[in-house]
Design a protein that fits this description.
The complex is a heterodimer of chains A (111) and B (117). Chain A is mostly beta strands and 111 residues long. Chain A has no helices and nine strands. A five-stranded mixed beta sheet of chain A has the order 1-9-8-3-4, with no helix packed on it. In chain A, strands 2-7-6-5 form a four-stranded antiparallel beta sheet, with no helix packed on it. The mean pLDDT of chain A is 91. Classes of the chains: A mainly beta (111), B mainly beta (117).
Chain lengths: 111, 117
């Protein structure tokens, strides 16, 4: 599976959009991009995933570049409860299906 | 309500003792996973299972053992051979583990914090 690179930390003002970047330059054609987040001392929570088209759900939007080498998770109106570690994961499934989590980005939403 | 349950939430054991962490899911998921998380670190995969009676080693399997006798259960045993067992352990499950079922998300339990003294 392709590796991902994320900034270790970011800050965002409450009510503003939070844009979290992820680089996955070695992604292959059958690999999906997933985003999870983990609030302190809890289990990770699924946010969104996509293959090549932009995706939106009730939690966030996912923008994937045309060459698929990077993506951005957008939280349109960040709240204090969005403070968490955000993980970007690339996964292809198949016989070696498993999720590989890096260190993620600690997003701190400030009042 | 459907979900994935880990128990207990906190566990204390003496050094040299084996301990088993429970993970149960009623989501009818085929795939289940165990992760370990140390302070300030990401998740590291210990074992995973794509189907009943089958499981595979992850990146840090040494000192751990698992079984998958039932679809809904995937217990993890931390043995005395694990040199640094104190950690936060997370169990997860997902719908598919094989070809054609890649675009599914994983559901995580709330974790078990194991402290070995």
């Amino acid at each position: 599976d392709a590796k991902t690179t994320q900034p270790p930390s970011m800050d965002c003002a409450e009510g503003r959009a939070a844009n979290l970047p992820c680089n996955h330059s070695t992604i292959s054609g059958n690999e999906y991009v997933y985003w999870y987040r983990q609030i302190h001392s809890q289990g990770p929570q699924y946010i969104i995933h996509g293959l090549k088209n932009n995706e939106t759900n009730e939690m966030a939007s996912l923008i994937i570049t045309e060459d698929r080498k990077s993506s951005t998770l957008i939280l349109p109106h960040a709240t204090l409860r969005d403070t968490a570690v955000y993980y970007c994961i690339v996964n292809s499934g198949g016989s070696n299906y498993k999720l590989t989590f890096g260190k993620g980005t600690l997003l701190t939403v400030n009042p | 309500d459907g979900g994935i349950t880990q128990s207990p939430k906190y566990l204390f054991r003496k050094e040299g003792q084996n301990v088993t962490l429970s993970c149960e899911q009623n989501l009818n998921h085929d795939a289940m996973y165990w992760y370990r998380q140390d302070p300030g670190q990401g998740l590291r995969l210990i074992y995973y299972s794509q189907i009943v009676n089958d499981f595979q080693k992850g990146d840090i399997a040494e000192g751990y053992s698992v079984s998958r006798e039932k679809k809904e259960s995937f217990p993890l045993t931390v043995t005395s051979a694990q040199k640094n067992p104190t950690a936060f352990y997370l169990c997860a499950s997902s719908l598919g583990g094989g070809l054609g079922l890649r675009n599914t998300e994983a559901f995580f339990g709330q974790g078990t914090r194991l402290t070995v003294v």
